[in-house]
Specification:
- The structure holds 3 protein chains of 3 kinds.
- Chain A is an all-alpha fold.
- Helices cover 73% and strands 0% of the residues of chain A.
- Chain A has a domain of 231 residues.
- Chain A is built from 20 helices and no strands.
- In chain A, helix 6 packs across helix 7.
- By secondary structure, chain B is mainly α.
- In chain B, helix 1 runs antiparallel to helix 2 and helix 2 packs antiparallel against helix 3.
- Chain C has a domain of 83 residues: NADH-ubiquinone/plastoquinone oxidoreductase chain 6, subunit NuoJ (Four Helix Bundle (Hemerythrin (Met), subunit A), Up-down Bundle), CATH 1.20.120.1200.
- Helix content of chain C is 74%, strand content 0%.
- Classes of the chains: A mainly alpha, B mainly alpha, C mainly alpha.
- Chains in contact: A-B, A-C, B-C.
- The interface between B and C is large, with 73 and 87 residues.
C-alpha cells in the first residue's frame, strides 16, 4: 500500500480536486462570459503548488532513490519524481500560454480541467509499479487528450487529426491490455517487480510468450513515443490539434510513454535475457533519420516540430538501447527527456504565439519575424538551436552524455559508437532545417514588416523557457546529478548471473568529468 | 472445462478480425467496432488466464479494462459526431485534406 | 476435448464480429457487435466468472452498444450506406489478418500454454469477494485513477458534444 503522504497521491489529490472543481464552478456560474482567465489562473496555481510539492519532497530527501520492486501499485521514487517534474513543467507552460490561446474560444473550463486530468495521468505513469495501474494511468493521460485534440470543432483538419489520433491511441491501449494479459498469464501477477522476478526464472516453454508480450509492449508504447514503424499518425495529430495541445502531446504524453517504456520494456527484456539492444538501436537510427528527413520537406511549422520530435525520440532511444552497457546511457536519456520537454514545448508555444497573432502556421509567414515579434523569434531560435544541440544550450549537454555513452560502450558492443555517429550526423542534418527557419525569421523580409503586439502570457512562458535552456546549458551539473540518481541501477535487477548482466560496465567516470 | 489454449487462440482470432477491420474499413464507426472487438478479445484472454491461475487480479483488471473501453467509446463517438457535423457523413475517405 | 457449448459460443462470437464489420448497413453492424459482446459475456460465464460477465453485459451491451446505436441513428442514415472499398486494400487486410493469426497463433501453440498441466486447471473458481478485496486494497489507487479517467471522459465528451452556436450567442 502506498503511503498516505506519498508524492503521487498528493499530486493526484491536488490536481484531481482542482480539475474536477473547474467544470463544477463553470456549471454554477450565472453569467456566461468567457471565464478563461479565472480557470487558467486556477489551473496554473494548482500546477505550481503541485510541482512545488514534488520538488520539496525531492529536496527534503524523503523520496527513495530509484526502486523497481515495490509491493504496492505506486512507488515514491526519484525516477518518478524526475518525470513528474519534467511533465509538470510542460503542463505549466501549456496552461500559462493557453491564457492567450483560449481567449475568446469556447469551453475554457473543460479545456483546463482536461489538461489537469491528463497531467495526473502522465505523472502517475511515471510512478506506477503495477501494470494495471500503468494502464489506468495511461488511459487517464490519453482520454482527455483525445478530447483536447478535437477541441477546435470548426476546423476539419483538426477533426481528422483527432480521429486519427483517437484510433491509434485506442489501438495502442488495446494492444497494451493484450500484452499485460500475457504477462499476467505467464507470471501470475501484475506487479512489475514480481513479474520481472518471475520472468527471470520462466520455464523454457513460456519464453516465446514473454517475448511476444514485450514486442506488444514496444508496439503499444511505441505509438505514443512515435517510434518509426508506429509514427504515421503523429505529424497529422500534432499539427491538427490546437497548437498549445500540440505542445502537450509532443512534450508531455510522448515523455510519459518513455517513462512507461523504461519501467516495463527495459526491465522485462533484462529478465528474459534476450539480445534486444540491437533491435532497439536499429529502431533508434531509423526513427531519428526518418524524422529528420521528413522535417526537411515540410512547409508548416507545427509539422516541422512534429517530425523533429520523432527524431528526438530516436536520440532518447539510443540511451535505452545502450542501457545494459553503460549507466550513463540512461542518465543521458532522462536528461534529454527533460530538456526535450522544455525545448519542444517552447517551440510549439512560439508557433502558437505566431498563430495567435498572424493566424498562420505557414513557414512563409515567419519571414521577418525577428523584427515583427522579437521576443517570440529569439525564443523560437534558441529552442531550435537547443533541439539541434548547439553548445552551450541544454540540448547540447544531454546529447553529449548520450553520444558519449555510445562511444564509451564501444569497448563492450562493437556497434555502440555507430549510434553516436548516426546521432551526430542526424544533428547536423537537423541543423539544416532549423537554421533555415532561423534564416527566414532574421534574414528575409516579409511583405509586412510592421511590429505586432506579442501575446503577453506566451511571452512570459517563452522567457521562462529561454532562461531554462540557457541557464541549464551553462549550469547543467544539478540536473545531470538528479538524472543520474533517478535512473534505476540495472545491476541490481536480476540476482542470477546472466551473461548480459555481467557485461554491465558501471561508469567509473563521474558525470562531472564530462 | 475447455482448455486454456482454445480461449487464447480464440482471442487471437478476434484480434486478427479487429486488425482487418482497422486496416480495411474507412468508416469511423466501423473502425470503432473493430477497436471494440480487439478490446473484447484482450479481456477474454485476461479472464481465461485468471481462471486458469485461480487468481482474482485478472478479473479486477478485466473490470477496469471494460470501464476504460466504455470511456474511450464515449469520447470517440463525441469526436465522430463533430466530424459528422462538419462533413455530414462519417467516411474517412472523404477527408480530402489528409496528408500522409 | 472441446466443449460443444464452447464451439457454439465461439461461432456466434466470431461470426457476429465479422458481420459487425461486413454488414451493409451500419445499424445491423452495431447490433451484431452487441451480439458478439454477449458472446464474450457467455465465455466469461463458461469460465465461471459471473461477476465480470454481468459487468460486461451491463457496460458493453447495455451502455456501449446502445450509445453506438444512438449515434448511428443520430447521424443521417443516407450517409451510412457508403460501402465503397478498395479491392486491393481489402485483400491486403485479409492477408495481414491471416499472417497475424497464423504467426501469433503458432507462438501460442508451440509454447507451454498448449499444455494440459499449465497453471492450475483444476483450481476452484474465484469467489467474487476476492475481486472486491483486491480492488479495495491492493488496487485502490488504480480505482481512484479509474474514477478520474471516467470523469475526464465525461468532461471531454460533454465539451465535444456541446453545440458551439448556442454557446457563442451567450458569450456575446
Amino acid at each position: 500500500m502506498a503511503d498516505l503522504i506519498s508524492t503521487p497521491l498528493i499530486v493526484t489529490l491536488i490536481l484531481g480536486v482542482v480539475g474536477l472543481a473547474i467544470p463544477i464552478i463553470d456549471a454554477f456560474k450565472k453569467e456566461r462570459g468567457s471565464n478563461n482567465r479565472l480557470y487558467s489562473g486556477i489551473a496554473f496555481g494548482a500546477l505550481i503548488i503541485t510541482i512545488g510539492f514534488v520538488i520539496f519532497r525531492v529536496l527534503s530527501g524523503e523520496v527513495m532513490p530509484a526502486v523497481l520492486f515495490s509491493k504496492g501499485v505506486l512507488t515514491d521514487d526519484l525516477f518518478g519524481s524526475f518525470f513528474a517534474i519534467a511533465l509538470l513543467i510542460v503542463s505549466i507552460m501549456v496552461t500559462a500560454s493557453s491564457w492567450n490561446y483560449m481567449k475568446g474560444r469556447i469551453n475554457p473550463a473543460a479545456y483546463y480541467s482536461l489538461i489537469l486530468l491528463s497531467s495526473i495521468g502522465m505523472v502517475l505513469i511515471a510512478y506506477s509499479t503495477d501494470l494495471v495501474m500503468l494502464l489506468v494511468a495511461w488511459e487517464l493521460m490519453s482520454i482527455p487528450t483525445y478530447a483536447l485534440a478535437a477541441f477546435s470543432k470548426r476546423d476539419p483538419i483538426s477533426n481528422e487529426a483527432a480521429i486519427k489520433y483517437f484510433m491509434f491511441g485506442a489501438l495502442s491501449s488495446a494492444i497494451l491490455v493484450f500484452a499485460i494479459g500475457l504477462v499476467y498469464g505467464i507470471t501470475g501477477t501484475t506487479n512489475i517487480g514480481s513479474s520481472i522476478q518471475a520472468m527471470a526464472s520462466l520455464q523454457k516453454g513460456l519464453v516465446p510468450v514473454g517475448l511476444l508480450a514485450i514486442g506488444l509492449f514496444i508496439a503499444g508504447f511505441g505509438f505514443k513515443m512515435g517510434l518509426v514503424p508506429f509514427h504515421m499518425w503523429l505529424p497529422d495529430a500534432y499539427e491538427g490539434a490546437p497548437t498549445t495541445i500540440g505542445a502537450l502531446l509532443a512534450a508531455g504524453t510522448k515523455k510519459a510513454g518513455f517513462a512507461a517504456a523504461l519501467r516495463v520494456i527495459v526491465l522485462g527484456m533484462f529478465a528474459l535475457n534476450v539480445d534486444w539492444t540491437v533491435t532497439l538501436a536499429i529502431v533508434a537510427v531509423f526513427t531519428m533519420t526518418l524524422g529528420n528527413l521528413g522535417a526537411l520537406i515540410q512547409k508548416s511549422v507545427p509539422r516541422i516540430l512534429a517530425y523533429s520530435s520523432i527524431a528526438q525520440a530516436g536520440y532518447i532511444l539510443i540511451g535505452i538501447a545502450l542501457a545494459p552497457y553503460s549507466n550513463q546511457a540512461l542518465t543521458g536519456s532522462l536528461f534529454h527527456i527533460l530538456n526535450h520537454a522544455v525545448m519542444k514545448s517552447a517551440g510549439f508555444i512560439a508557433a502558437a504565439a505566431v498563430a495567435a497573432t498572424l493566424a498562420s502556421y505557414s513557414l512563409e509567414k515567419y519571414r521577418g519575424l525577428g523584427r515583427r515579434m522579437p521576443i517570440t523569434a529569439i525564443a523560437f531560435s534558441i529552442s531550435l538551436l537547443a533541439l539541434a544541440g548547439v553548445p552551450p544550450l541544454n540540448g547540447f549537454w544531454s546529447k553529449l552524455v548520450l553520444f558519449g555513452a555510445a562511444i564509451n560502450s564501444g569497448s563492450v558492443v562493437a556497434w555502440g559508437p555507430y549510434l553516436a555517429i548516426a546521432g551526430v550526423l542526424n544533428s547536423a542534418l537537423s541543423l539544416g532545417y532549423y537554421a533555415w527557419i532561423i534564416r527566414k525569421m532574421y534574414m528575409e523580409e516579409g511583405p509586412d514588416m510592421s511590429k505586432v503586439k506579442e501575446p503577453r502570457a506566451m511571452v512570459a512562458v517563452l522567457v521562462f523557457a529561454m532562461v531554462f535552456m540557457v541557464g541549464f546549458g551553462v549550469w547543467h551539473a544539478p540536473i545531470l546529478q538528479f538524472a543520474s540518481k533517478a535512473v534505476p541501477h540495472l545491476s541490481n535487477i536480476v540476482p542470477t548471473g546472466s551473461n548480459h548482466l555481467s557485461n554491465i560496465v558501471p561508469s567509473s567516470k563521474t558525470l562531472h568529468d564530462f | 472445462m475447455t482448455e486454456l489454449i482454445y480461449y487464447v487462440l480464440l482471442s487471437v482470432v478476434l484480434v486478427a478480425i479487429g486488425i482487418y477491420g482497422l486496416v480495411v474499413k474507412r468508416n469511423a464507426v466501423r473502425m470503432l467496432f473493430a477497436l471494440e472487438i480487439i478490446a473484447n478479445a484482450a479481456n477474454l484472454n485476461l479472464i481465461a488466464f485468471s481462471r486458469n491461475l485461480s487468481n482474482a487480479q485478472g478479473q479486477v483488471f478485466a473490470l477496469f479494462s471494460i470501464a476504460i473501453a466504455a470511456a474511450e467509446v464515449a469520447v470517440g463517438l463525441g469526436i465522430i459526431i463533430i466530424a459528422y457535423r462538419l462533413y455530414k457523413e462519417i467516411d474517412v475517405e472523404e477527408f480530402k485534406s489528409m496528408r500522409g | 476435448m472441446v466443449d460443444p457449448v464452447f464451439i457454439g459460443v465461439a461461432v456466434l462470437t466470431v461470426g457476429s464480429a465479422i458481420i459487425s464489420l461486413e454488414s451493409r448497413e451500419l445499424i445491423y453492424g452495431a447490433i451484431a457487435l452487441a451480439i458478439s459482446m454477449l458472446g464474450i459475456a457467455g465465455f466469461f460465464l463458461l469460465l465461471e466468472s459471473p461477476f465480470v460477465a454481468m459487468f460486461q453485459i451491463a457496460v458493453y451491451v447495455g451502455a456501449v452498444a446502445v450509445l453506438v446505436i444512438f449515434t448511428v441513428m443520430l447521424v443521417r442514415t443516407q450517409a451510412l450506406f457508403t460501402t465503397k472499398e478498395d479491392k486491393g486494400r481489402k485483400s491486403a487486410g485479409i492477408v495481414l489478418m491471416l499472417i497475424f493469426m497464423v504467426s501469433i497463433g503458432a507462438i501460442f501453440i508451440v509454447s507451454a500454454l498448449n499444455n494440459h498441466t499449465f497453471g492450475n486447471p483444476k483450481a476452484s473458481a474465484i469467489d467474487f469477494t476476492a475481486i472486491g478485496q483486491q480492488m479495495l486494497t491492493y488496487y485502490s489507487p488504480a480505482l481512484i485513477t479509474l474514477a478520474l479517467t471516467l470523469a475526464g471522459a465525461v468532461i471531454g465528451a460533454l465539451a465535444l458534444a456541446r453545440r458551439e452556436e448556442e454557446i457563442e450567442q451567450k458569450n456575446d
